[in-house]
Amino acid sequence: MRFEEDRIYAQYFRDVSSARMPENASEEQALFERYHQHGDLDAKRRLVEGNLRFVIKTAKQYYRGDTEFLKNLIAAGNVGLMVAVDRYRPWVIKCRRCGKQNFVAASKHQRCSHCTARLRQCDAERYTTRFLTYAAWWISEAIRTELYESSLVHIPPYKQKEHHRARQQGQVVGLSYVSFEDAAEQAEAIIGNHEHEALEQHALGLLHEILRSMKDRQAYVVIAYFGLREEPKTLREIAQKLGVCSERVRQIKEEALQDLKSRLLRLNIRNSSDVLVN
User: Fold this and answer.
1) Residues 46/13, Cβ–Cβ less than 8 Å
2) Which residue, 49, 113, 47, is CA-closest to 85?
3) Which domains occur in the chain, in start order?
4) In whole angstroms, how far apart are CA 61 and each of 19, 57, 124, 135?
5) End-to-end Cα spacing for the chain
6) Nearest to 131 by CA among 21, 38, 37
């Protein structure tokens, strides 16, 4: 079975190498006119077969030694080539009303895609870009999509393009070697951050438990002044809220902090490391 498949592909490569491309732009335009305006499928077949060698050439740029995978890339590139044949428009007509350039398959009986005004056939011009230049993008996109679908680690196609541009500029993209010492330092930093976050959460919970047992006015002044639930407030803002003077608020704050300190000492908490123990 494998021998038969290899024989079929060998015959395919021979047929592709013997296929004739359009000799010039005029012949290419005539084939597109026959296909788009008259539905001639033989013209489409000649356009596709004449550019299959370019598909193989493009697919080989991504060849990494796996022959079976190369066949998949060629098949995907062929699909992109056929899409390009259907989407290529050999005529361009400028709308006299809005000035928009309209790329169309036929030169007559067309309307502007922007303002729907009828386009004049006398304004039609041949699209100067050759078909293979237009089709190269569709072929490459189809091959890159096949690469994305078959990869173990999926990187979106737009990210692949960004990485390619970055590599061309000399930037390091993707995986890189990290020494054992650097990895250990990074791990210690991550563990330290987690421990610090856990300590903060535990200390905050203990603080709120103590504040709930204090007088309401003292608890409110501490919470508002230090911004434990919202943005910190000044003594004057807290005084306006309580209906007292700023000096009285300062006295309440000092009394609350002294009470808080004594409560922490009774719980044997003298520094931040004692919080997790308690």
Assistant:
1) no
2) 47
3) 2-90+127-155 (1.10.1740.10), 193-277 (1.10.10.10)
4) 21, 7, 38, 16
5) 73
6) 21
**Under a CB-based contact definition with an 8 Å cutoff, are residues 11 and 5 in contact?**
no
Asked if residue 79 lies in contact with residue 71, where contact means CB atoms within 8 angstroms, the answer is no
Q: How far apart are CA 256 and CA 4, in angstroms?
A: 90
Cα–Cα distance, 246 to 236 (Å, whole number): 5
> What would the pLDDT profile of 51-86 be if each residue is shown by its tens digit?
999 999 999 887 767 778 888 899 999 999 999 999
* Contact criterion met (CB below 8 Å) for 196 and 231: no
* Cα–Cα distance measured from residue 89 to residue 101, given in angstroms and rounded to the nearest whole number: 12
DSSP 52-113: HHHHHHHHHTT--S-HHHHHHHHHHHHHHHHHHHHH---EEEE-TTT--EEEESSSSS-B-T
**Predicted confidence band at 1 (pLDDT cuts at 50, 70, 90)?**
very low
Structure tokens at 237: 């803002």
